[in-house]
Design goal:
- The protein is mainly α and 201 residues long.
- The chain contains twelve helices and no strands.
- Helix 10 (151-164) packs antiparallel against helix 11 (169-181) and helix 11 runs antiparallel to helix 12 (185-198).
- The longest helix has 15 residues, at 49-63.
- The chain is globular, with a radius of gyration of 20 Å.
- The chain starts with a helix and ends with a helix.
Amino acid sequence: HQLQEALRIHDSGDAAAADPVYREVVQALPEFADAWYLWGLVAQDLGQHEEAVFRFGRAIAIGGEQAEILHHLGMSLQALGRLQPAAQCLRTALSLAPGNPECLASLGNVALERNDLQQAESCYLQVLTLKEHFPQVHYNLGTLYREQSQNDKAAHHFRRTLELDPGHWKAHFSLGLILQFDNRTLEAVAHFSRAIQLNPD
């Protein structure tokens, strides 16, 4: 009953309120791997990545390696700047769930942060063959191409991001930069203005 209540609270978007309920479940059933994993997701949502790494680690120690847990562990390790172990976790997750687009995207994100642009591009392009409607991957590819001064490719992926997610303010901003560089000032201003509307800060 407590686990269902914790899930309900967490699914409603209140990770902070779910945290103590999961704590009670884990205290009552310390060898319940799923509870540790779900409790780790709460920590991750709260930005408590050291705690998330610990909780995911407990889940794996109790229940064995599972692709979903390893994926989230890799994401928290990346958030902590531990890029090499993050990449290893994600590769192991992919070996357990080959072709998982979310996991491939996360591996691409780690490669991008490590400035391994070739691997990042490879991961992102693989994702789009599996799941073309993935706005964040289009945005990340656009960013990768813009950093390589491949502005036509970058603009294509920023536009595709906005087709899939019109509220993606970073894509508006990034596309505006490319248009500004191309002296398409009015179009650039329109995208910068839209970015400001979406994110006034």
